[in-house]
Write a structure and sequence with these properties.
The chain is α+β, with helices and mostly antiparallel strands and about 190 residues long. It has helices at about 1-25, 75-85, 110-145, 150-185, and strands at about 45, 50, 55-65, 65-70, 95, 100-105.
Length: about 190
Amino acid sequence: MEELNLALEMCKSEMEHAIEHLSKELSKVRTGKATPSMISDLLVEYYGSPTPLSQVANIASADSRTLTIQPWEKSMLRHIENAIFEANMGVTPQNDGEMVRLSFPPLNEERRKEMVKKAKQIGEDTKVGIRNHRRDAIEEVRKAVKNGLPEDTGKAKEGYVQDLTNKFTEKVDAILAAKEKEIMSV
């Protein structure tokens, strides 16, 4: 019984982690306002190994449409530019020898709809992950029932797992609705 409770707690923890991951991924989706989180995880070649941009440079928001990237070593400017080009973000980096500036154009209606679609895809992937955790937890419950756990207790545990799944799926929907509203607001 204790193993089963541990598995159910693990399931809940994994679902919470999925929600955290969703929030982190959605922070990278452009909403018309430039934020450092959009590029902080961009991988840059640093002495032969791919390193997140946030670990080799200071990223700041100069205004609502411009990001500045100040590398800690000037030799990194070229690598940062290359990483931005390879990421195909739709912006051209401007290197002034000291820092790289990214100017994001305002989003048009079509581009906003693409961003909403991308956000919904990220949300759907999160829901699939939550359902996979539900499946694994229910398998654990069924194994426990096979090994002697009373069937009514097993049904109650399955109901608990389903309630968790519903709760976290609703959270995903709420987060997506807020993000869609943020993207579509001009």
